[in-house]
Amino acid sequence: MMGDLVVDIHAHLWSVAYLDLLAAAGVTDLEMYRHLAASDSQEDLDTRFALMDMAGIDVQVLSATPLVPHLEDREAAIATAAHVNDEYASLVDRFPTRLRAFLSLPLPHVADAVAALDRLDDERFVGVALTTDILGTPLTDPRFDDLFAALDRRGAVVLVHPVGADARSPLIAARPMRWAVGAPIEDTIAMADLLLAGHLSRFPEVRIVSTHLGGALPMLLPRMQAQQPWEAPDAPESPLTAARRAWFDTVTHVNPAALRAASDVLGSDHLLLGTDYPFQAQDELPADVALLDTVLAPAAAVAVRSRNATSLFSRTPWIITGGAA
């Protein structure tokens, strides 16, 4: 069983074949991803595993975010989702002690996305990866209620990751801050919306994992708590209560103040180790992982590295056998 394996909940991989499929479906701005050394080639995998070993990480959970197959063309979305999910399943088969994966869904086609959830019966997939909005539509839009209801029935883990769409703001798009500023703003908006809309109480069995410490949520949550009675009086529960239903990964880019704030406000028992590989790599990734021991108490650091993941995946088959890859 998982035991005290060190689990990286937030890591990416995109094969050349998958990027080509996205390009054929009309997705643009893919060139950066072709140069990140995060493909399924043996060379890239060897680099990945070496860095995991350096940081003391046993298992990475892969996701295709932000390049999930959210495509208006239904047939393209279905085919592209099936392709990336098959690739990830094959990778887990090749490296069962090092890798697991999040499922990609052919959204915004809800009926097809619900049908695709059958793959969660496969232990190679530990949950679902979504972006902070679906082609510009919030996750809380009623058109996605059937999907959340299906995820709730399964008690599914759902990773929510930025789209990289400048938070749909021309103020960000006009400036060189898409990922440094826009992405954590997308985290913040999506999580604040989920909290205030009551999705975490309405679908209580869905286990939401927000990336990058929930964006600015550790700083804004007390403010949201104070202003919710008059600004969002219809929220079914307070933001702090709702936030305790969610989980947050620890990607900080070696920022001890951010990790300390997240631990204080969100609770270290709801933090999960995340590296954002390959966006944190080389020296930064192991330094960010080591930050847990600098900022957190020893028991809390152990929990964030492994035991919180055991709790998160308590309803997910996770059997790892054999030696290291």
Automatic annotation (TrEMBL):
InterPro entries xrefs: ACMSD, Amidohydro-rel, Metal_Hydrolase
Entry annotated with the keyword Ligase: no
EC number: 4.1.1.45
Pfam assignment, any one: Amidohydro_2
Keywords: Lyase
Domain Amidohydrolase-related: from-to ranges: 7-313
Broad enzyme group: lyase
UniProt key word Lyase: yes
Annotated GO MF terms: aminocarboxymuconate-semialdehyde decarboxylase activity
Name of the featured protein: Aminocarboxymuconate-semialdehyde decarboxylase
Protein's organism: Microbacterium resistens
Lineage: Bacteria, Bacillati, Actinomycetota, Actinomycetes, Micrococcales
